[in-house]
Hints:
The protein has 416 residues and is mainly α. 77% of the residues lie in helices and 0% in strands. The two termini are 62 Å apart.
Amino acid sequence: MGDCNTSTDERAPSVEDDITVVFHKVVNHGRNNGHDDHDDNECGDAERVLLRGNCRGDDVEEGGDAEGKEEASGSEDSLEGGKKKTPLCPPAFCVRGANTSRGASAEQDAEKPKKCPGLGLFYAFVSTVFFSIIALVVKTIQGLHAIEISAIRCFFQMLFVVPLLIYHKTGFLGPRDKRIYLVLRGFIGSNAMILLYYAVQQMPLADATVIMFSNPVFTSLLAWIFLKEKCTIWDCVFTVFTITGVILIARPPFLFGDHLRGIEGNYWNHIKGTIAAFAGAVAAAFTFVVLRKMGKSVHYYLSVWYYAVIGFIECLIAVSVLGEWKIPSCGRDRWMLMLIAVLGIAGQTFLTKALQIEKAGAVSLMRTVDVVLAFFFQFIFFNRAPTWWSLGGALCVVASTSGIAVRKWYISSRKS
Length: 416
C-alpha cells in the first residue's frame, strides 16, 4: 500500500467518497503485507481520522457544502499535524444515549415514593410537644433535686441508646478526631439540661421556658465568635430584643420596685431561676455550635450517648457533693422519671427527623409552639395566669427567635 499522505491528497471532500476510500484502504491493507509496521500504523491512524471526519460529515450534510469543505480540509490538517487518537462517538448514538439516560432517570424518579408535604413540620411539632411535657413533669415532681432528676434521665437514656448503637454499628467512642467535640457536647449539653430543670423548679414554668427559648439568638453570636460566621445588624437587633424580654420576665427590683406580682415563692428563688435559665440558654447555644463544628461525620445516636454518659457521671458527682441524693417515692414519681427519659429520646429523635426533611428555619418557627404550650400548661395545671410583664417578655423573645428563623429560611431559599 502506498504512502498514506499521498492517498489523502486524492481524497474528495464529499462524505460518500471518504467512506469509499476508507473501505478501499482496509482491503489493500489486508493484501499488502510487505510494508513495515511503521507504515501500517500510520495508515491505521489515517483510517481512524477519516472515520472521525466521517462522523463530522454526517452533521455537515444538513449545514451546506461550504461547511463540508471545511470539515474535509480539517481532516487533512489532522493527518499532517500528527497522530491524534480520539474516541469514535457518532452524534446520533450520543443523542440516543442521552435520551436513554434521561428516560431512565425519569423512570427512577417516578418509582421513588413522593415525600409527604408538611411531614418535617409535623415531626417538629411532635418533638415540641414532648419537650413541653417533660418540663411539665419536672415541675410536678416534688422532693427531688433537679440534678438527681437529670441523673435518672441520663441513666435510662443510656439504656435506650445502647441497642441503637449496636444496631447501627457506630461503636461507643466515635472518630478519633471528633472525640474532643463529643466530650464537649456531652458536658455542655448535660449542664444545659440541669440548668433548665433547676429553673423550672424555681420559677413559673412559662417564664423558664421563654428564657430557655432564647438560645437561637446566642447561637448566632457564638457562631460569629468561634466559627467565624457572618454577623449582621439584624443579629444585634434580635439580641437586644431577647435581653429586653429576659429583663421583663426577671423584673429586677431596681427597675420594677419591691412589690412584684406573679412571682412564684420568694423573689430570691425567682432570680436564681432566671439566672439558671439564662445560663442554660447560653449552654444550649454552645452545644449547637459544637454540633455544627462536628458536622454530619458523627452519627446522631453517638452524640446522644456521650450526652447521657457524661451527664450521668457529672450528676452523680454533683449530687454526692451536695448531699441531695434521695430515693424517689414509690408509684407516681418513679413512673414520671421513666416518662421523662422516654420522652427525651423520642423528642430528640423527632427533632432530628424534622431537620433532615425540613429546613432549619421552618423547624425553629415550629418550636415557638413550646412557649404557647408552656403558658397553657401553667394555666391549666397550676392555675397561674401570666402577668403582662411575662407576656411582654415572651413576645420579645419569640419575636427575636422567629426573626432569626425567618431570615435564615429566606437566605436558604434564595440560595436554593
